[in-house]
Amino acid sequence: MITPEQIALxxxxxxxxxxxxxxxxxLAACLVAQAAPALQELVQRGAYLARAGDCSACxxxxxxxxxxxxxxxxxxxxxxxxxxxxxxLETGIGRYSMDDFVKVMREGVAKDGHRLYPAMPYTSYAxxxxxxxxxxxxxVTQGLEPVRNxxxxxxxxWPLSMRSLMAVWNGLYFKKGEYVADxxxxxxxxxxxxxxxxxxxxxxxxxxxxxAGQEKADSEQSGRLYLAGASLDNWxxxxxxxxxxxxxxxxxxxxxxxxxxxGRTSRVAAIGVMAEVVGKSTQYLTDQDLMSIAEYLKSLPAxxxxxxxxxxxxxxxxxxxxxxxxxxxxxxxxxxxxxYLDNCNACHRSDGSGAKRTFPNLVKNEAVNxxxxxxxxxxxxxxxxxxxxxxxxTAFAMPDFEWRLSDAEVAxxxxxxxGSWGNHAAEVSPDEVGRVRKALAIKKTAR
Length: 447
Description:
Helix content is 44%, strand content 4%. It has 447 residues and is mainly α. Among the domains are: 49 residues, no CATH class; 124 residues, no CATH class; 134 residues, Cytochrome c-like domain (Cytochrome Bc1 Complex, Chain D, domain 2), CATH 1.10.760. The strands form three sheets. The chain has a three-stranded antiparallel beta sheet with strand order 1-2-3, with no helix packed on it.
């Protein structure tokens, strides 16, 4: 390949304006050709980071128009719609400079000055390095196809609809600053912490929130509430801490990696929002990054929020074999056992063991024993599918029972599951089921 030095020599030796101009054009072409591989590498890195951040999950409403926004996001204060982040000039971010992009990611402030709501997890993305932000900018501006899709207005009640109030919220709850590595921890641990706290924004779902919607902790240094489990949008995100009953205490690092890679293990399966996270994000991470995440999560102590506080108010744990023996004998005297036998037994079996990597095991399952049964109610009413991944392509699904079972029947069967085979979570009431059923109906209407 001709070098810039050779072209410059050609230009100096050129005896005419035409020759000099030709040399200048050739120099520009050479520089572009040499820069192209570097830009492509940067765009590819940005694509990986975008997947690690699961950006497409929120910014894609129609699969044929990726990153074009328009997805309704239900929040406790109303409905928010994701924005178009393709490089389209009028409705996307095609006019954003690198500084504009950084301001959105680190401060939650758009190019025109309006403030974003923290449904866009800038509170986590603020921890990203400048290098990673540059790669992400390269990807969204150079790696995505522009799609014209006007952004939809949010539907929040006054005064929460006043974006200026976000300045006050940020002053109270938003901690700025890049992630700072812990010198006492390994490089792998720090990489895991960076991914979990930053790009992965795991705390957005798994950390409980305060009355103003703020996450109660942003890292393990903020206390044991970080990743201690939380309920939102009709799902319960289990603790990612070392909780015995509902957290990762019994999980090995390899199991965590397997779950993030395939959406299933020999014991459990990813459900609801987490199935989407695996399908669109974590399955594409490198083995090294997944193991770093596992190392970090396994280092977190118990949050003391693992459901043991409910044990005193819940009925005593039944003998682990009592439910199995009753079901096999056709004895349906236990509350919910008839509903289970008619609708659940074929897949999850009379001993609750299910089938490895196909039908989840219900025995001492973290989701089954969660403080909040909302995920179980959601699955029974609306169904759920495992993610289809590169290493586990079959997306086994549970059908919905919304029209087949009444609120009382759903409450009965879930109470049966949460109190059998050694499980000892609190019973479920018909009122709890009714609230979820109503919320799901509203959300479907919004779409």
